[in-house]
Amino acid sequence: MRFSRRTFLHLAAGAAALPAASRIASAQAYPARPVRIVVGSVAGGPQDIAARLIGQSLSEKLGQQFIVENRPGAGTNLGAEAVVRAAPDGYTLLLCASPNAINTTLYNLSFNFIRDIAPVASVLRVPLVLVANVSLPVKSVPELIAYAKANPGKVNMASGGIGTPAHVGGELFKMLAGINAVHVPYRGTAPMLTDLLGGSVQVAFDPLSGSIEHIRTGRLRALALTTATRLEILPDVPSLSEFLPDYEASVWYGLGAPRNTSAEIIRKLNSEISAAITEPKMKARIADLGGAVLALSPSDFGKLIVDDTNKWGKVIRAANIKPE
Predict the structure, then answer these.
(1) Beta pairing, strands 66-70 & 35-39
(2) Shared domain check, 133 and 223
(3) What whole-number percentage of the chain has pLDDT above 90?
(4) Do 109 and 181 belong together in one domain?
(5) Mean of all residue pLDDT scores within the chain
(6) Which residues contact 144 (CB under 8 A, 6 or more apart)?
(7) Which among 234, 219, 175, 185 has a CA at the least distance from the CA of 205?
(8) Does the pLDDT of residue 298 top 70, yes or no?
(9) pLDDT of 38 over the 50 cut
(10) Average pLDDT estimate for 2-29
(11) What is the predicted pLDDT for the residue at 229?
(12) Are residues 221 and 265 in the same domain?
C-alpha cells in the first residue's frame, strides 16, 4: 500500500499527538487509586494536621482516598527522600514545609530538594511570634533590643530545637538587631513553653498556633509577629518589620511531588487545592491553627521555596548552625 504525502503527514501528526493525548487522558482519570501524602514528622504535629486537612478535602473532591503516611526522622529528611525516590505518577506526594528549605543547607542530603521535588500547591502560612516572659522588663521590640544591648549575653532566647524555623528566625532577628542573645534549644515546643512560662528562659520565637492562648490569657507577652504585616487575630501586636524592615520569617506548608510528575496532574491538584483552601469552612479551620491561606501557582510556590532556601542558607552559614 502506498500513501500520499498528505496522508503520511496526517498520520505522522496524529502519532506525535498520542503522547500528549495520553497524558491528558491520564490527568483526567487521575486519581484512579488512593494517593499517599508523606509527612516527615510524627502524627499530631503541625505538618500532620495540615496534611490531614488538605487530604480530607481532596478525598471529598476527587473521590479517592488521600492517605497521610507519617515518616518521621532526620529533621523531616526521611519523608522527603522517600518521595524523591517514588514513582512520578502523582500517587505519592510530600507535605512540604519550611524545614525542607532550611535542611538544604543544614544537612548533607543525598538529594537536591529544589531539583528533585516539583512544587504542586501551597496551602497555608503560619507566623512565628516573638514572646517574652511577663517578668522581663520590656514591653516592645525596641525595649528588648535596648535591654539586650545593655545586658550582652544575659538574655536567653529559646526555640523548639536546633535548625527549626523558630531557631533560624531568632538568629535572623539577632543579626538584624545587632544583639547578643544566648540560644537555648529544646526538644520540641512543649517543654520550651513550660520553661518560658516559668521564667527559666526569657524570650522565644514560636509558631503562633502554640502560643496564642498564652498570649490571650496574659501569661506571655507578645512583642511582635514575624509576618510582613499585622494579623487580624492580634491587631495590636506589631510586625517585626515595623522595627527591622528587612525581617520576615514564617512557616509555610504545601504539597510537592517527585520531579517529572506530569504537568497536567500538578495543575489538576493545584486547582483543587486552591479552590479548597479558599472555601469559608477551610479558611476558618486554617485560622484556628493561627494561619492564613496561601494559594500560589506551582511556579510561585517554587519561587517561595527557592527564596527561603537562599535566605535561611545565609543565616545558617553566618550563625554557624550545625545539626544536632
Answers:
(1) parallel
(2) yes
(3) 82
(4) no
(5) 92
(6) 130, 132, 136, 138, 155, 203, 223
(7) 185
(8) yes
(9) yes
(10) 52
(11) 86
(12) no
Q: 3 in helix, strand or coil?
A: coil
Domain boundary among 242, 275, 306: 242
How many distinct helices (H) and strands (E) make up the chain?
A: 12, 10
Residues 184 and 145 in one domain: yes
157 vs 172: CA distance, rounded Å:
12
Report if residue 1 sits inside a domain. Answer: no
Around Cβ 273, how many Cβ atoms within 10 Å? 22
* The residue to which cell 512543649 is assigned: 190
How many Å apart are CA 167 and CA 87, to the nearest integer? 34
| In a domain? residue 324 | no
pLDDT attached to residue 1: 44
**Strand residue runs (E) in 197-290:** 203-207, 220-225, 250-258
CB burial of 188-208 (b: ≥16 within 10 Å; e: otherwise) equals ebeebbebbbeeebbbbbbbb
Q: What is the predicted pLDDT for the residue at 4? A: 53
The answer to whether 231 touches 127, Cβ cutoff 8 Å, is yes
Question: What is the grid cell recorded at 90?
Answer: 502523582
Tell me the mean pLDDT in the region 298-317.
Answer: 98
Name the phi and psi angles at 119, rounded to 5.
-65, 135
96/131 same-domain check: no
> Which amino acid, 111?
F
User: What per-residue confidence (pLDDT) applies to 196?
Assistant: 97
Per-residue pLDDT tens over the stretch 158-201: 999 999 999 999 999 999 999 999 999 999 899 999 999 999 99
Q: 222 and 197 in one domain?
A: yes
The answer to whether 25 touches 75, Cβ cutoff 8 Å, is no
